[in-house]
Specification:
By secondary structure, the protein is an alpha+beta fold. The chain is built from five helices and five strands. The chain has a five-stranded mixed beta sheet, sandwiched between helices. A hairpin with a 4-residue loop joins strand 3 and strand 4. It is globular and about 65 Å long. The model has no long low-confidence stretch (mean pLDDT about 90).
Length: about 160
């Protein structure tokens, strides 16, 4: 079942967000400490669930336990929507939950009058790309992001 987020869902959604984004550039770059990356996604989920997103849909088990969610951001001035986070508990992946969440978001955006919906994902995240393509999204743009890290250096002093 898919339903709107409820305050009691937050702790479970934070845990899902901490584990569901292993394919992102932040998890795959060793210069981003894993606990900080987990906190990034947990905080992102918290902010969206507490009102930054206009809608957050939650997939729940028969026992009403969150299995995943999707956040929706509406720009009424442009008549468009943006999907923020989509996450499914790794233990529940491969069961069509992501597809049902995306469809719930599409339905909500359409009911709100959005004429277009955008979603952004990592180029290396093939599972997410397949999900969005199966739901009718078409690739519009590709961007490459590079990280270059330099070794830590001692700060300069006036004598140098």
């Amino acid at each position: 079942m898919i339903r709107p987020v409820q305050p009691g869902d937050l702790s479970a959604l934070q845990m899902i967000a901490r584990t569901a984004f292993r394919g992102t550039r932040f998890f795959n770059d060793r210069h981003f400490p894993r606990p900080r990356v987990e906190e990034l996604y947990s905080t992102w989920m918290t902010l969206d669930a507490r009102g930054r997103a206009q809608a957050v849909w939650v997939a729940v088990s028969a026992a009403d336990q969150p299995l995943g969610c999707i956040s929706c951001h509406l720009d009424p001035a442009r008549h468009s929507g943006l999907i923020g986070l989509v996450c499914v508990d790794p233990a529940a992946q491969g069961k069509g939950i992501g597809k049902r969440l995306v469809q719930a978001a599409i339905d909500w955006f359409c009911a709100e009058g959005a004429g277009a919906i955008t979603v952004v994902t990592q180029g290396a995240n093939l599972a997410a790309q397949r999900l969005y393509q199966q739901c009718g999204f078409l690739s519009r743009d590709t961007r490459l992001w590079y990280h270059k890290w330099y070794p830590a250096r001692e700060p300069r002093t006036d004598e140098q």
